[in-house]
């Protein structure tokens, strides 16, 4: 009997601690979202909308371009590297969407009326798919070409796309942080594909 009470107490405390932690995360997220929204301008709106809208095209164009270059040059390693980038993106996409369906976190503008989005994205919020995909591409590309002139623009792009999701009011900052970790982790976990 005492063991059952102890187990119940542990789960109750764990549930309370999780609720408190979630409340703190929500407050942190809301504070940042509202502060960012207060500093929007027309020029920045256009830039961040452009970044969000073109993200998927970039993530597809990178491995396709690499594969095409490998075909034209007859370079098997470049084709393998392209498959590594594409596979990383596929794994990231699947994991991101699986987590979205399991967690079912609402978009910030649904949960908090003070958050006004620049457009109303559909689906669930956690984690950010734009962020995970951009960080997957940046990490995989940087792994294939570990030169500063590849790494710096890749991560600048990924970071800018990620920030755009907060700026546009369609993702919580914690969605973006998790998406970045998930995207980078997906690429790093598949590095074995690019080996010669």
From TrEMBL:
<dbReference type="InterPro" id="IPR000326">
    <property type="entry name" value="PAP2/HPO"/>
</dbReference>
<feature type="domain" description="Phosphatidic acid phosphatase type 2/haloperoxidase">
    <location>
        <begin position="82"/>
        <end position="191"/>
    </location>
</feature>
<keyword id="KW-0472">Membrane</keyword>
<keyword id="KW-1133">Transmembrane helix</keyword>
<keyword id="KW-0378">Hydrolase</keyword>
<keyword id="KW-0812">Transmembrane</keyword>
<protein>
    <submittedName>
        <fullName>Phosphatase PAP2 family protein</fullName>
    </submittedName>
</protein>
<dbReference type="InterPro" id="IPR036938">
    <property type="entry name" value="PAP2/HPO_sf"/>
</dbReference>
<dbReference type="Pfam" id="PF01569">
    <property type="entry name" value="PAP2"/>
</dbReference>
<dbReference type="GO" id="GO:0005886">
    <property type="term" value="C:plasma membrane"/>
</dbReference>
<dbReference type="GO" id="GO:0016787">
    <property type="term" value="F:hydrolase activity"/>
</dbReference>
<keyword id="KW-0732">Signal</keyword>
<feature type="signal peptide">
    <location>
        <begin position="1"/>
        <end position="21"/>
    </location>
</feature>
<keyword id="KW-1003">Cell membrane</keyword>
<feature type="transmembrane region" description="Helical">
    <location>
        <begin position="82"/>
        <end position="103"/>
    </location>
</feature>
